[in-house]
Amino acid sequence: MLAQTGFMVDETRRDTEQGAILFDARRLPQASPALLDPSHYDADAIHGRGGRGAVWFVDTPAGAAVLRHYRRGGMVGRLVDDRYFWTGENRTRAFREFRLLAELHDRGLSVPRPLAAGYRRDGAFYRADLLIERIPDTHTLAERIDDVLGDLPCVEALGRLLGRFHAQGVCHADLNAHNLLIDSRRRWWLIDFDRGRLRRPANGWQQRRLQRLQRSLRKIGGDRRPNWMAAWGTLQLAHDDERNRSQ
Fold first, then answer.
1. Residue 190 to residue 6: CA distance in whole angstroms
2. Which of 59, 174, 194, 223 is catalytic?
3. Mean pLDDT in each 10-residue stretch from start to end of the chain (247 residues)?
4. Which of 31, 32, 123, 153 has the most crowded CB, counting CB atoms within 10 A?
5. Residue 50 — left, alpha, or beta (φ > 0 → left; ψ -120 to 50 → alpha)?
6. Phi, psi angle pair for 78, to nearest 5°
7. Which SS3 state, helix, strand or coil, does residue 125 take?
């Protein structure tokens, strides 16, 4: 059963004064670069911030959305913050993530629908932003760790979700407990596909992605919960079964 309903993403490109934007013309027929600028929104249209101050929850003509400004992390981020070396439009972080999300959405996988993406050139560098649909009534796995680990059918559903992604060659660059969302109907969603890509399905990298998630869960104390061993075993088995069935 498809996780998403409605029309496929209608990717449309438009030049801007300093770069270009991509947008889903079905949802935003009158898209402009202002949609990617948090200062464009009235105070009552912004419903909080997150992600080191680089994420805004906003109301748009397409409904509730998440606006993200791309920022570097680690030591490099202290030097160049939100600037990336220009290597061509199709290699910008925003355009690549928009197109990957559009592909996954159109396949029926549980990801937020992309609404708009844009970049602005600045000499040898560029800055970029992404606007995606906000999935309502969700919490991260990290926020619901106790509840989830104590509910093996819920853990199994998560394992099957990851198995479906991996069967289709979806390699998430940062699979962790903060990028997995569970909604009020106990459905799972995967978010934040920056640097994600499609690869040939093969067990090696898929298992490494799961190990990354396991490290993330250990970091927030998941392995100290009473049901940890049963929960992780359930997730692994469900993942492998779904991946094998779906390939």
1. 19
2. 174
3. 65 97 96 95 89 86 96 63 95 98 98 98 96 97 97 98 97 97 97 96 89 98 96 98 90
4. 31
5. beta
6. -75, -20
7. strand
